[in-house]
Amino acid sequence: MKHISLYITSLATAALILASCSRTPEWKVKGTVHGAESDQMIMEASNGFGWYPLDTIMIGSDGAFEYSREAAGHPDIYRLSFNDQHIYLPIDSIESLTLTTNASTFSIDYKLSGSTSAEIITNVDHKLMESAATKGALYTVSDSTLKRQLAQLMLQEPSGIVAYYIINKRIGGLPVFDPENRKDLRIIGAVANAYDRDRPNDPRTEFIKKIYMLHRASMPYSSQADTIQAGTVAFPELKLWDNKGNLHDLHKVAADNKVVILNFTAYTAKESPVINMEFNKIYEQYSQKGLEIYQVAIDDDEYQWKQSASNLPWITVYSPSTEPQNLLQFNVRALPTTFIIVNGDLIDRADQIADLPVKLAKYI
Fold it and tell me: Domain ranges in the chain?
């Protein structure tokens, strides 16, 4: 009987392993809708031209809900619909998002967390809704300062889900970025180019390209130069302290140097010494030719950062990991992340440190 018991246990274990290996990747959202106890919501998806229902989500007697769905294999936007109010969910892959809101202010006063994209899109929506509520939809979609901030977000990762979301965002039925507007079309073109380059098989790519090409053809004096220029954009403000107590303004550093490498990193990460060795090679080669490095340490241990930073010849500043606003405004989703600023414009990023020498050669 002992041998039979062991055999059955082994079969059960093997079955569990096979089940876990064959489990389909899923994304999830859960949370609470206060005041909507025992009610229901609709999960919706978009085909690029409109929204259609996927599933009905039942809300429990305590206001809690939970929903999961098979990952699509590409980034996408879904939305939760409740009493003609909508909350948008950015899904890159297999996120687990958490939502807290109220039935009466479902799409106005809510908190969505679980990914950097979710937090950024929540901030974008709140900012747009606040502007529309106080100044009107027409003013909001014409607000050059607000749209410049949104363009900064998009062009830091133009092939990301945040850029796709903002490009398709409407307020009061009006597009925030209007393809009939020449300046807006340039931004749309930059996103379309990035999707075509980085996500050629993404079904959203053709949709964005068609929007751009359709309106580009009818735009007077349009040229390929519009798309190239759209890749450059100013960047958010960043003022942080170094290990010696000096404040460094990124805008001033960019104004004083032809090229600035902006690097977000964690000194406590195991790959940090290797990365900084590569930065040192680059710094030695180009620092006399107009290059500066502005390195932002996102660490828990400020003391350890100070010890490491004391040996580095470039600008090293500290941003506590408990204060994520600097990461959010630059749409940093993983460490390390590296941007290239040329003549005061953020124009490129290097996903791999090994890519930097080739990219820098174009600008120095």
Answer: 27-109, 135-230, 239-360
- CATH no. of 239-360: 3.40.30.10
Report the alpha-carbon distance of residue 254 to residue 62 in Å, rounded. Answer: 53
Tell me which amino acid residue 287 is.
S
pTM passes above 0.90: no
Which is nearest to 151 in space by CA: 304, 297, 307, 346? 346
Look at 78-87, 192-201, 229-238 and tell me which has the smallest mean pLDDT: 229-238
User: What per-residue confidence (pLDDT) applies to 318?
Assistant: 95
Least Cα distance to 227 among 176, 158, 161 occurs for 158
Sort strands 259-265 and 345-350 into parallel, antiparallel or unpaired.
Answer: unpaired
Burial of 160 (0-12, 13-18, 19+ CB in 10 A): buried
Is it the case that residue 214 has pLDDT exceeding 80? Answer: no
Give me the torsion for CA of 154, 297, 115, 176, rounded to 10°.
-20
Position 45: which residue type? A
Mean of pLDDT values over 323-338: 79
Write down the residue that tokens 């809690």 correspond to: 64
Structure tokens at 111: 């908190």
Residue 115 burial (C-beta neighbours within 10 Å; 0-12, 13-18, 19+) = buried
Checking if the pLDDT of 229 tops 70, the result is no
Domain spanning 27-109 has what CATH number? Answer: 2.60.40
d(CA 324, CA 29): 22
Task: Report DSSP letters for 284-323, one per residue.
Answer: HHHGGGTEEEEEEE--S-HHHHHHHHTT-SSEEEE--TT-
Q: At 257, is the pLDDT very low, low, confident or very high (cuts 50, 70, 90)?
A: very high
pLDDT number for residue 152? 83
Nearest CA to 59 out of 85, 87, 30, 79 is that of 30
